[in-house]
Amino acid sequence: MDSLLRWGIENSVGPDGQQLPSVEPRKDLDPAIIDHILGKPDAVLMKEALEVAVDEGQDEDGRVLALDDFEMLVESIDNANDLARLKMWEPLQALLTSPSSSDAIQRQVLWIVGTAVQNNPSAQAAYIALSPLSTLLSFLSPSVSSAKTRSKAVYALSGLLQHNATAVNQMVDAGGWEVLNGALEDSDITVRRKVAFLLNSLLIPSAPVIPSTESQQTNPVHANSHASMLSDPASFSTSELTQRALRERGLLSTLIQSLVSPLPYGPDGESEGDPDFEEKIMSVIHTYVLSCHGQIPAEKKNVLAKWIADQSAKAGGDAKVAEQWGLAKEDVVALRQAL
């Protein structure tokens, strides 16, 4: 842009048709003043924030603030993709795994990871190359005392797994499905809700791919675009993998049990029942049974069918209970018929 502007000035003519004299760039301007007026480039701001974050000599509040600034910068997809070019994924991952990192610092890094990779195939590929699944899953362990950190771990996992068959394929070897199964019974209800929402997102079948026209095929495919996903549909299809996990890894049984006999939650298990969690589980069941035509074992099917019938009766009919679950009456009727 600068060179184009310079060319325009150099080739401009005055009112009398004479070429204007060339303007020599000023060399007496202080770069610090220019940065103050125009602002530093995002890449520089990211580098400076990360330098503070990894410096253990800095106080923790300053490091956390730097990571907070960093997270806002990677909300831009271009900045998120620059993490690989600037070799920033490695130090971020090191902050997650370092024994000296505090809970607050690790929580901020999980936030950065989730923001950078969500809906971004290029960033997902760059991060998955570091084999981070086991690390992310470790933050969902009951031994992690902070519910906020466990919740941020689900956020990071969601960003990495959604529309990413490569990452979902690694869940079996990483023991990830078993971890998510346990998280459905987390003491914090927010964690349970987020896991149920994630499962439904992974379960939703991919939309049919429309064949590209000849003109579309000649266009470049960028790694951070949806075109990259359409060029390889198998790369973002996670439904079949998730269906298998629900059947074979105990998740389906846990979801149904969470409806029929919900576990208390809270620091002391003082709370019971949660309409939001119930709604999200019903979304999973609806997607699995009606959209994916998934099978439920006869024993569990009978239990689920009776529970849905009881809830419908309590609510005053299928239309009322459908409203509670964020579904249409037709969805509830179809679900009951399928069971």
Structure, explained:
Keywords: Repeat. Residues 213-234 are annotated as: Disordered. This is Nucleotide exchange factor Fes1 domain-containing protein. Residues 1-83 form the Nucleotide exchange factor Fes1 domain. This protein has 339 residues and is mostly helical. The protein has a domain at 31-205 and 220-239: Leucine-rich Repeat Variant. 64% of the residues lie in helices and 0% in strands. The relative contact order is 0.07.
Helix/strand order, N-terminal first: HHHHHHHHHHHHHHHHHHHHH
Number of strands: 0
Number of helices: 21
Query: What is the CATH domain class of the domain at 31-205 and 220-239?
Result: Mainly Alpha
The geometry reads as: globular
CATH fold-level name of the domain at 31-205 and 220-239: Leucine-rich Repeat Variant
Biggest β-sheet description: none
What average pLDDT do the residues reach?
88
Strand content: under 5%
Going by CATH, what is the homologous superfamily of the domain at 31-205 and 220-239? Leucine-rich Repeat Variant
CATH architectural type of the domain at 31-205 and 220-239: Alpha Horseshoe
Q: What class do helices, strands and sheet pairing give?
A: mainly alpha
Helix content: 55-70%
Low-confidence runs (pLDDT<50, min 5 residues)? none
- Whole-number radius of gyration? 26 Å
The end-to-end distance, rounded to whole angstroms, is 63 Å
